[in-house]
Amino acid sequence: MTEEHRLRTLVHYEAPRRAERPAALTPEEHRRAGTRWPVPRQLEAGEVGRLLNMLLEAYDGRRPAAQIRALVAPEVYRGLSGPRLEQPRHRTQTVHTCTAVPDVVEACARVEADGRSFALAARFTRTPAGWRCVRFALLKPQRPAQRSQRAAA
Question: Measured between alpha carbons, how far is 123 from 143 in angstroms, rounded to an integer?
C-alpha cells in the first residue's frame, strides 16, 4: 500500500498585492499639513539613571561634552563643556524620580566618588524632539574653611 505523494497547485490562489504607497510629500507640503513629531513617551527611572550617568561622564571629562549636546539645554552644556581638572569618577548609587507635572521629570541621586557621597539634582523637560536636561547640579559639601569665611561675612 504505497501512496504517491504529489504537490498540487492551488489554482484559485492569488498572491496578495502590495499596498500602494501614498505620494511622497515635499518639505513645504509636510509643514503645511500641520503634522507634528510624535510626543516622546514618559521617562522611566532606569532611563533617567542612564542619562545621569552620561551627564556625570561629561562632568568628569570621561565623555566628550559634544556627545550630550542634544540631551541638555544650552546653559547646562556650557557648564559641562570647556577645560576640566582631573576629577574622580562619579557613580550613581540610587536614583529617585518625581513627575510634578506631565512634561517635567525631576530626579535626585546619591553619587559616590573616592569613597565620599554627594547629592545630584536634575530636571528634565519634554520638548517636541525628546527629553532635555534643563538643570544639573552636583552638590558637594563645602570645606570647613569656606564655611567659616561665609559665616564671618
Answer: 27
Contact 80, 72 (CB under 8 A): yes
Q: Which position has the higher pLDDT, 58 or 20?
A: 58
Percent of residues in the chain assigned helix, strand, coil, to nearest 5: 30, 30, 40
Strands (E), the chain: 91-101, 104-113, 116-127, 130-139
Share of residues in the chain with pLDDT > 70 (%): 68
Tell me the backbone φ, ψ of residue 124, rounded to 5 degrees: -115, 135
Mean pLDDT of the chain: 79
- Calculate the alpha carbon distances from 39 to 14, 43, 50, 128, 141 in Å: 40, 12, 21, 6, 39
Kindly list the distances between the CA atom of residue 112 and the CA atoms of 6, 22, 118, in Å, as whole numbers in the listed order: 72, 54, 6
Q: Work out whether the CA dihedral 142, 144, 149, 151 comes out positive or negative.
A: positive
- The C-alpha atoms of residue 88 and residue 92 are separated, in whole angstroms, by 13
**In the predicted structure, residue 96 carries a pLDDT above the cut 80:** yes
